[in-house]
Design brief:
alpha+beta; eight-stranded antiparallel beta sheet; seven-stranded parallel beta sheet; 13 helices; 47 strands
């Protein structure tokens, strides 16, 4: 029996605001033993693996993508697509040899393309072998960061008071918004960031906060939401696919950028987000995953990247260390035309120089310092010159003391930090690019305009000049002055959208303009009005919204400084009934499945016991019909299919097989028990034995000739492993990884139990079975379990079969997991779903 142990969770992370530790990823100067490896290895890693220790680390390869072609492309989508393709191609080519080496060594690896780095876990021997490779540039230890305790969650009383105050002061700009003169841009340029997409990498966002929900890109404008491509949880902490924030920091920074009612700098800009911080602890691996998503957003499963949906601007209120950490990512974003802003860090004391941290202290980054409402530099604001490269830092300073912004729970909080200053700059760029769309993607000119518009502050005690120094950078942000200096070549198009029959104003209608330099889109607001600023050129306009027929007009030419007014009226469309039957993967009626029309306000319905459903009123149009099975989902996957409604419709759906990100699929199978014949020397409560495989068995594309079998119903392809009595949900970054969980539970093999293997069939068509007979439960659960995993030589599949399971799997995990614990196909976790005489077939994708 064992003491209880907390469940393992996927940990990934980020560091927000002011980090007080050194972060290394692509860092310079590392230490190595005399006469040691050819590639530099940082001293922290050498120390960690000394005397038999193991550590997770990044192998950074020498190959570097050529992003020059991306910089030459016209249009946001063209630039992001070009950068993405070049980075992916270069990483794939240069990582192939390294990955083959790691696979042969049975070392799991997580591959990144935006920095051409591979994450692995191992000891001193592995580090030394990797450092001797000619394709390796450097090896650095993975770092974890902890957020400073400057954030304080409001009490219930404070929340009520803050909400009341916000209601009373609705529309009044926060002090920082007014100090940078964003409200003057609103009034004198009629610009609030329309048509610009802004993102943050942070602790998440409360997406339905009243001041944020309207301009979330995932808001369909009709009460429904689409989170694919608009939200990414690199940390794996959110309970659903919807955005969450279990810290508050990310909701606060997003509010300062785009919050309504005077909270945000650019309240009509559109936002998306990547959660890179678990809560208050963060890791390099999550940072890279979030950085990749910013350049090429994916669906909720991390599949089907669409670089064209990348944001225009990304805020980074985090940092740490004095290295070139994250520099490749910054340069990739800039090449793709994505403006980035980074916090300078909160390790200052108001006097000491060179207290700023990376990535904000790196030359390619636009770093931001903080000042208070009286115009004094904040005591905590990080100063330059940069310890990384000697560059002047910060680049600019913005309001960062006692900044009130949005907070989870539909509330507000007032906190301080360079984290709070940085989103003022990111929001300011949204105003600048909205007012002067010819600047979109032009990073150098944008930085120059921000610098030129800044109010000089003469403080040269850390070096520099009165108008550019290492305390204030170029000075205090003044976005009105920057917009004033911008090239005012844009045309302005305004108008109203109404119902053709009734004349009623329509809100939430998307007005999209497409021209040679890309696409810009806004939604109509109260009164049905819209406003678009466009670079001179010829455009096509399309209008769409639930309940109305799409409308379009093409060949609209706009000229420099032109002011156009164009109203649209849309035809309402009839509504019809949509009904049908939902079947599971075996073709049987599926009860309690959720059926909804994505992109419409039609409420979801649940199937009855016979699998039928009815959506009584759906407006004519083309939609996505989404079906999700209720738990336990087992091998039933989610279904998303196109549905055109032009009359009463019957839409029957048979759910697809559930898959993982790699492409492996799960399906119920015919039970065909294979009796064990060769005993494995395995017994007791915690034991493991490595067995030879009669033919190579692949797991996530990697072939193996041996595997470790444990008493706890696990097959581990990477290492002999015992002590894993506390099963967990899959995937999990914590070890063990690279496993087949036939019945992962705390099991005991006593005198009545055994583990056997058996081989059936002729060469080329053999089946290899690993069989657990009469395994007892360590917690004393009555009864026993007899089960097996069967590997098929011809197809590479694995079938899990259950002759008897006393508790039906109530305390077990069943499924497969990849070598780095970031992908898995889980059949069940602590669910009573296994029955005697049942089988689950997992077909592995061949790549």
């Amino acid at each position: 029996m064992h003491l209880s142990r907390s469940r393992r969770r996927r940990t990934a992370a980020w560091a927000a605001a002011a980090l007080t530790v050194t972060g290394l990823l692509i860092g310079p100067p590392s230490a190595a033993a005399a006469g040691g490896p050819a590639a530099p290895v940082d001293s922290a890693l050498l120390k960690a693996v000394d005397k038999g220790g193991e550590s997770s680390f990044f192998v950074v390869l020498k190959g570097k993508a050529d992003l020059t072609p991306a910089k030459r492309k016209r249009g946001h989508a063209a630039r992001t697509e070009s950068a993405f393709n070049e980075l992916k191609t270069k990483a794939h080519e240069s990582q192939q040899s390294l990955n083959s080496f790691l696979d042969k060594k049975k070392v799991g690896h997580q591959d990144f393309w935006i920095a051409n780095a591979v994450r692995v876990t191992g000891g001193q021997d592995l580090v030394e072998q990797l450092a001797k490779r000619s394709d390796v540039a450097r090896i650095v230890k993975e770092q974890h960061y902890k957020l400073d305790d400057i954030e304080s969650k409001p009490t219930e009383a404070q929340t009520k008071a803050a909400v009341k105050a916000a209601a009373e002061e609705v529309g009044t700009p926060e002090w920082g918004v007014g100090d940078i003169k964003a409200d003057r841009v609103w009034d004198e340029y009629e610009d609030r960031g329309e048509g610009i997409v802004i993102a943050n990498i942070d602790s998440g966002v409360q997406y339905d906060h009243p001041d944020l929900v309207d301009n979330y890109r995932g808001n369909n404008g009709d009460g429904s939401f689409t989170h694919d491509y608009n939200w990414f949880d690199a940390s794996g902490q959110c309970p659903t696919d919807a955005p969450c924030d279990n810290n508050g920091h990310g909701t606060h920074t997003m509010g300062t950028m785009v919050g309504e009612n005077g909270v945000g700098v650019a309240p009509n800009a559109t936002w998306i987000a990547a959660k890179g911080c678990e809560t208050d602890e963060c890791s390099d691996g999550s940072l890279l995953a979030a950085g990749q998503w910013i350049l090429a957003p994916t669906d909720a499963n991390g599949k089907n990247p669409r670089p064209g949906l990348a944001p225009n601007i990304v805020n980074n209120s985090w940092g740490g260390g004095d290295t070139t950490f994250y520099q490749d990512i910054v340069e990739a974003w800039n090449a793709a035309g994505i403006f980035e802003a980074f916090a300078s860090g909160n390790d200052g004391d108001g006097k000491t120089c060179s207290t700023g941290h990376a990535p904000g202290s790196q030359a390619p980054s636009y770093g931001v310092g903080a000042y208070d409402s009286s115009g004094r530099i904040a005591d905590f604001s990080g100063f330059g010159p940069s310890l990384v490269d000697g560059s002047m830092k910060p680049n600019i300073s913005a309001p960062g003391v006692d900044v009130r912004s949005t907070w989870p729970g539909n509330s507000y909080n007032t906190i301080s930090g360079t984290s709070m200053a940085t989103p003022h700059v990111a929001g300011a760029v949204a105003l600048l690019w909205s007012a002067a769309p010819s600047l979109i993607g032009d990073i150098d000119t944008t930085r120059a305009l921000l610098d030129d518009g800044a109010v000089d502050v003469d403080d040269t005690h850390c070096g520099g000049t009165a108008d550019a120094n290492n305390v204030w950078g170029e000075g205090r942000l003044d976005i009105f002055a920057s917009v004033d200096k911008a090239p005012h070549t844009a045309a302005t198009m305004t108008g109203q959208v109404t119902d053709k029959a009734t004349g009623a104003a329509l809100t939430g209608i998307t007005v999209q303009a497409t021209g040679a330099t890309g696409t810009r889109a806004v939604s109509t607001i109260d009164g049905g009005s819209y406003r678009l600023t466009l670079a001179p050129g010829t455009y096509s306009f399309t209008l769409s919204g639930y309940g109305y027929a799409p409308a379009s007009v093409s060949g609209v030419e706009v000229t420099t400084g032109q002011r156009l007014s164009k109203d649209f009226s849309l035809d309402a469309v009839p509504a019809h009934k949509v009904s049908g039957k939902i079947l599971d993967v075996r073709g049987r009626p599926l009860a309690k499945a959720s059926v909804q029309i994505s992109g419409s306000p039609v409420p979801a319905v649940t199937t009855g016991t016979d699998g039928t459903y009815t959506l009584p009123t759906v407006a004519e149009g083309t939609y996505t019909l989404s079906v999700a099975p209720a738990a336990p989902v087992l091998c039933n996957g989610n279904s998303r299919g196109s549905l055109t409604v032009d009359d009463d419709e019957t839409a029957d759906v048979r759910l697809p097989n559930r898959t993982d990100a790699y492409g492996n699929t799960c399906a119920p199978a015919a039970y065909s028990w294979i009796k064990g014949s060769t005993k494995v020397a395995l017994s007791g409560d915690e034991d493991a034995k490595t067995v030879a495989l009669p033919f190579p068995v692949k797991l996530y594309g990697v072939p193996y000739t041996s595997a470790s079998v444990t008493t706890n119903g696990l097959i581990n392809f990477l290492e002999p492993r015992i002590g894993d009595y506390a099963n967990t949900a899959l995937p999990s970054a914590a070890r063990p990884n690279g496993t087949v969980a036939a019945l992962w539970d705390d099991l005991v093999l006593d005198k009545k139990s055994s583990v056997q293997t058996a081989v059936k069939g002729a060469k080329g068509n053999r089946a290899f079975a690993i069989v657990w007979n009469n395994a007892a439960y360590a917690d004393g659960t009555a009864g026993r379990a007899t089960f097996e995993a069967v590997f098929d030589e011809a197809t590479g599949s694995v079938t899990l079969q259950y002759k008897s399971v006393a508790d039906r799997g109530a305390g077990a995990t069943v499924g497969i997991e990849n070598q780095t614990g970031d992908d898995a196909l889980q059949y069940s976790f602590d669910q009573s779903v296994l029955t005697a005489g049942s089988a689950v077939h997992i077909a592995q994708e061949v790549k």
